[in-house]
Every structure is written in structure tokens, then in C-alpha cells.
Write a structure and sequence with these properties.
Elements (H helix, E strand, L loop, with lengths): L5 E2 L2 E3 L2 E3 L6 E5 L6 E6 L3 H18 L4 H17 L1 H11 L4 H21 L6 E4 L5 E8 L3 E5 L7 H12 L3 E5 L5 H14 L6 E3 L4 H10 L5 E5 L2 H11 L5 E5 L4 E5 L5 H13 L9 E7 L3 H13 L19 H17 L2 E4 L18 E4 L16 E7 L2 H9 L3 E2 L1 E5 L3 H10 L4 E4 L15 E2 L13 H4 L1 E8 L11
Parallel strand pairs: 1-5, 8-9, 8-11, 9-10, 11-12, 13-14, 13-19, 14-17, 16-17, 19-20
Antiparallel strand pairs: 2-3, 4-5, 6-7, 7-22, 15-16, 18-21
Helix pairs in contact: 1-7, 2-4, 2-6, 3-4, 4-5, 9-10
Length: about 500
Amino acid sequence: MATAARTFQNFIGGEWVDAAGGETFESLSPATGEAIGTFPRSGPEDVDRAVEAAKEAYRSWRLVPAPKRGEIVFRFAALVAEHKQELAQLMTREMGKVIAEAGGDVQEAIDMSYYMAGEGRRLHGQTTPSELPDKFNMSVRMPIGVVGVITPWNFPIAIPSWKIVPALVCGNTVVFKPANDTPALGERFVELLSEAGVPPGVVNVVHGFGRDVGDRIVRHPDVPVVTLTGSRETGVAVLEAAADHLKHVHLELGGKNGIIVMEDADLELAVEGILWSAFGTSGQRCTAASRVIAHERVYDELAGRLVAAAERMRLGPGWEPDTDVGPVINRKALDKIHSYTEIGQDEGARLLTGGEVATGNGLDRGFFYRPTIFGDVEPQMRIAQEEIFGPTTALIRVRDFDEAIRVANGIRFGLSSAIFTRDVNRAFRAMRDLETGITYVNAGTTGAEVHLPFGGTKDTGNGHREAGQAALDVFTEWKSIYVDYSGRLQRAQID
């Protein structure tokens, strides 16, 4: 898998350029430490240049008919599909996902782009009857301007598509900061957009770190919209920084998702769903199942099955076909995950399996952590309340359905939830009572589809949604239009 490391540049106004300060940083493979490439470590001056290019391009891009903008996005989707294997291979190297999951990440971008391309021929508003004669009323969606897009490393192709593609279809321009752990994937994303026909300046990429690039994007007075996927702490900081300019801020933040397993559940199916949700992407998903809330009648059997299945999972580089669990993203993440193992043990939870950095068989070269399961977890323990973002899940015993719902809701986050049960009445009560933006019945906590809204309640975000038609609300403003063809002044609400 080793390839010669390239030197990359920013993409501003349709040109590839170095950072003004001349500094660089490296992207390294979390599986092997191999250098993926060298990237510009940009600063505020580079952001300012990109915003100016996007602002200038907006003047003409907003006037391109939305169906034509959608056609460009359609071509982009086709190009991503054509390059799917290439992108998946790059993702296994730069981010660490196993190859099947990497392909799924790319497929999500394909699906989102095809879906949003169709919105170019919809972008529906409303027409309503007027209270006055000879008068026509309607509402339309209008683009807003330059959108600052700040994305994480865990879905380095899918999440940029959730943000950039609808922003473009709606008529906005973009300044994009990919995560500094996956800049090569962000770069490739923009290259394909340019190849699809996105005009110069409409999409700009500025590589670098949050304190230099991200902060300037958020504070820049000519960036009226900021969309971020990240931690709760980062989200709060972004809201505070954006407040002076009353920016539109869309936040997709953390999760502490729970799977309820009732006593009537299909345990074989539940084990499959838990393993996929807890340990897929090495647990590095905002929708990962880091809690399993099991009825006391099936708790012991479920725990035994989960431990046995987790211990059969093979760790290794994502490009090896028999790998089940790849590396975590970097040393800092590895240390954080292990610190939560120590916290769980100190709190009195019982470590059932895992709980250690994986070594041997070449794993020492990367950042691998063994799938970890805690038993006898109390709902208020830190490992049951705080987002770990690694391959760790906590088993919590409950007596009945009502307690299961209370435990599931007893956290600050509200992204995803799931229940395994054969009782249709319980399933519908769970759909109603679980305080999350997403609920699955007889499936794990991951697997959202692009045509439904994605996002959560409580501290998971600030009320906006990605995907589906709900995504358009982030990137447009409503304009109400009244056309009076009576030929005289008519005064509404005047007797």
C-alpha cells in the first residue's frame, strides 16, 4: 500500500497555491505511520484570500439556474462513483477504515450528491391564497452567500458531501477546511468537484488547523453561514465566536447512543447490531453504540455472546480483507480511549474484554485498541455518560421497559437510539419516547439514509439537520413575495 508522498496545495479561486506563510504539515497513516502527503499549514491570510474568491464567485454562481447547478452536482456524483475504489483505498490509508466501510463512506457521498442534484429541480417554496382580491402570494428559497464548511476526519468523504453539495445546489459558494488528519481526502473531493465543472472560486479548500484556519472562517465577517461537525466543546466555541456577526451556525456534535435489548429480542440479531454499531469504524462515529441497555432476563446471555464475538474480531490495517477493526485516528485518540478504560475500572465497572492497546503482528506501528466491553455499569458512571469515541461499549442492566427508556434518555446527548424487541407496542412507544433525532427498531444505531434528516436533540446540536430536504434550511433563507395586480393600493389588515 505504500506510495510516494506528495506535496499538496490550497485551492483558491480555481488555482492551486501554497500557504502564504510557507509552513506545512504531514498527514500520516494511523495504521502504519506512513506519510500520505505534505499539506500547507495555512493561516488567516489564506482564509481571507479564499473568502474573497468565494465572495466574488457568488455574484455569478447564485444566478446560475438551480437545475444547471444540479446538473454539475450530478456529474460530480458520477465522477465519485467512477473513482469509488480509488477513494476507498485512500481512505483506508489516511483515515484507517476497513475497506468495506471506506467504500460505504464514499457511497454515501454518491447517494447524497445524486439526491441533492435532484433538488436543483425542486427547491420547493409555497403558494398561498391572498386575503385580498387580485393578489398573488408565494415564498421562495434564496441563497445566502459564502458558507464556511469545517468537517471531521471520521467520515472524510461523506460528511463534506452532506454540507458542500446542498450548499452548492442552493446557490452558495464554499470555503472548505478539511480535518487536518484527513486532508488528502478533502483535497480529492475538491478536485472532483472542479473536474465536474464547478466554476473557479465557487469551492475553495484551505488546509490547516482549527485555531488558525477554522477560527478565522468562523469569525470572518463575509462568511454568513458556518457548518461544523465536531465535539460539543468546539461547537460551543464556534457559537460564541460567530455571535458578533449573527451568523447562521449549523452544528452536528456528539452522541452517547444506546441500544435497548428487551427480553423478547432476537439475541443473535441484537449481537450483530451491537457489534456493528459499537466497533464499526473502531467506534469513531457520532452514532456509535457506546451503551447497551439490556433487560435483566437476557443480560447475562447477551453479555456472554457479545464478549465471545468481540474477541473473534481481527485487528489490522483496513486494506487487508480479513480485518474487522482498523486503527483509531492518532495517538491522542488512543490515549483518550485508554484513559476511559481506567476511569471505568476506577468507577467499579467490570472489564469483560479488551481494555488495552493492541500490540504484536505489526500493530505496534499504528494506533490499535482492542474492542472493549464493560459490564455492571451504572447509568451515571462517566463511561455511560461521556463520549469516548473509540471501540468501547458499556452494558447496563434494567428491570423493565420503562427503566430502559429512562436510562436511554438520561444523558446530555440525543443523536441516535435503537431497540430490539418483537413487541410492536413497545416498538411504537420507543419511537415516541426516546429523546433522539434518530431511532432504529431491530437494528443498530448506525445506518442513516440520505433522504431523511440527520441530526439530534439536546447537546447533539443546535436544532438543524443534515440530509433530506431539511438540509436546505441550513443553506437558504426564505423570501415571501406578494404580487398585487389589482391596479390600486390595497392595504392588508386595514378595515
